Amino acid sequence: MSLNSTYISSPRLFLSCRPLVVGREKLLRDAGPDEVSLQRTADLVRYCDIVPMDSGRYYEAEMHRNGKGDRFLAYFLTWSEDRTAAVTLGTKAKFFFTSSLSGCSVSVVGPPDAPTVFHANAKGISDTTQAQEKMDSLLPKDEGVKLTKLKYEPKAAQVMEELRQQMQREKQPVPEEGMVEPRVTVVGAADDGGKWTFYYQQWAYYFVQLKDRSLQKQYITITPCEELYPAGLRNISLDISKFFEDRFERMDHFG
Hints:
The chain is α+β, with helices and mostly antiparallel strands. It has one domain. The protein has five helices and 15 strands.
């Protein structure tokens, strides 16, 4: 069974065991930083193709404007810097993707047969709390569910300490420096009756530099896929003990 067929058969099961990233493209209808850009539903239908990346360590949902092979129809809502984009879903496709989150917020409101999805960004504000307040001002306040950076961003220092402990248990050199790249992927799927369900997957990419500066170790960890809408948002946490994969690479030079 191909990756596309596997995803179509059960998006939730696919996301429970495979890290998935969704890219971005230019908004078709832009708006100012204090406005919401409502995209036309028909403009957002793409042909999705799920492909392996980095030798299958993670996967990408590529969006195309033409069908080829077993690509499948899906709505695709992208994002734009310091903007909020939104779309109300219909029946032109049974699947939905939005660009993966590394700092943005997503909100889903409205009835399951016609939900509206918001994707907000506040890149121009460096303070996390202030940025979230800015995004909150353009997201619905009293209904639906919301997934924010304050809920899904792991604490890098804590994660790095857990990584050091893990590597000590593995009797590997202890890393001197590290970087955490959290990712959250939000997708939707409609049943045969046209009712939409949204899921989120949290995964993180951990990159550590060893003391001799000649070796790097990369980890990808993934949390079980959870329902976001309509069931509501559950607590999100990263379990550092569940490593999806690790790999060593010898580097000639490390900048």
